[in-house]
Amino acid sequence: MNNNQEIILQAENLSRYFGGVKAVDGVSFSLRRNEVLGVIGPNGSGKTTLANLLTGFVKPSKGKVIFEGNDITGSPPYKVADLGIARSFQMVKPFYQLPAFKNLNVALLSPRVRRLAGGRYGDRDAMAKDLLEEVGFERDSWVISHQAASLPHGYLKRLELAKCMALQPEVIVLDELFSGLSLAEVASLVPVIEKLVHQGKTLVMIEHRLKELFRIADRVIVLNFGQKIAEGEPAQVMEDPQVKGAYLGSEAEE
Ligand SMILES: Nc1ncnc2c1ncn2[C@@H]1O[C@H](COP(=O)(O)OP(=O)(O)OP(=O)(O)O)[C@@H](O)[C@H]1O
Q1: Domain ABC transporter spans what residues (predicted)?
Q2: In a domain, 253, yes or no
């Protein structure tokens, strides 16, 4: 449980319209350092667009993103990453032709990682293999060195997480990390997430897997048609009549 009161990330009246579609509509929230914030809501409620807004992949129609007290609204993704916000993607897009561990090079060769290491890069291959082992790749098996194209989905999702970790970020935005994973695969990733929290990372977790999310999240916000309709502790939020209404007949996996 997070007891830190320092606000690390804020969304202020964040909005993004695509033509007539209000994908995200006036969403505000504050995230405390080392907190785990869950973002839930039915399909099409604006969760991925919110992740894109926080990480610079789309620019807001209105509103602001404040990170560590600085207005980063409209900053491009590479700058946002350099400041310390990493993200994973719902649809994984690795460098398919590269061995799994080489996929971490973009992060491991980033100016941020070099800065944090005092100007040196170190043994990148060893760092990549350590990280992949942390997220559940067997170090001595073929998977770590095999082309990403040949990896099963579960490994590609782990690779996404390892790429985030390689950046040594302050905040990690995870867009449906658990989607498409078996119960056993999710169960094996939960301790990895818990370790990141223990290390002081701040997490935003967009999830449909509510049961697993609620084990980890300190707080959740609920989106529906782009608007934040509830915010609070998981159990409390799921009792909210508006949230129950939004989820009625929807696809939430419990
Ligand atoms: N680039 C885009 N152009 C036009 N409409 C978009 C674009 N991106 C998202 N939308 C629309 O914005 C709304 C919110 O989409 P978004 O993908 O953010 O929802 P979501 O909650 O992440 O959905 P899911 O749970 O299915 O991943 C949807 O109506 C979607 O069709």
Answers
A1: 9-250
A2: no
